[in-house]
Amino acid sequence: MFAFKDSQGQPVNFIYNYKRGTWYPFVPADGAQKRSTERELQLKAQLADELPIEPELERWFPLWAFRSRNPPGPELRTERLLLRRWRESDRDAFAALNANERVMEHFPALLTRPESDFRLRADRGRLQGQRVRHLVRRAARRDLPGLTGISIVPSKSTSRPP
After folding, report:
1. Which of 1, 16, 21, 149 could be disulfide-bonded to 133 (CB atoms 3.0-4.6 Å)?
2. pLDDT single digits (tens) 106-137
3. Model's pTM, two decimal places?
4. Residue of 36, 30, 84 lying closest to 60 (CA atoms)
5. CATH classification for the domain delimited by 76-151, as one of 3.40.50.360, 3.40.1050.10, 1.10.10.60, 3.40.630.30
6. Cβ within 8 Å of residue 69, ≥6 positions away
């Protein structure tokens, strides 16, 4: 399954049936396990000349469990803090952290807004890879004091823990 967002920010997925060599759109709608059949048929008509689209609509199976490449994930809450994965809505706060001289004191440079946005997107895309970073937020104040995370060092690295 390949997940995208349309121009309105709504999820649009394309599922490849490797046994049949065909594709079909899957567009979740608001609500529990509802789909936008109308939008799926529009996409079929728009892309029929570009992709081999599955002609039998009864084979267009929804993949509810795989709707998002970056699911919300677990949250850890204490009386004072919230630890969770980054969301698109965190972009402004993340950019403010990356532009703060005190926060970035031990980093090579402050980040511009485009650099900060790129880093956030890259980190969200690495959830299954070598790095996982989580947002840390103070529960009562709802501010963003920082982030925490784990980076996996490749085994060929000469770096050793202290």
Report:
1. 149
2. 888 999 999 988 887 776 555 444 445 666 77
3. 0.46
4. 36
5. 3.40.630.30
6. 3, 125
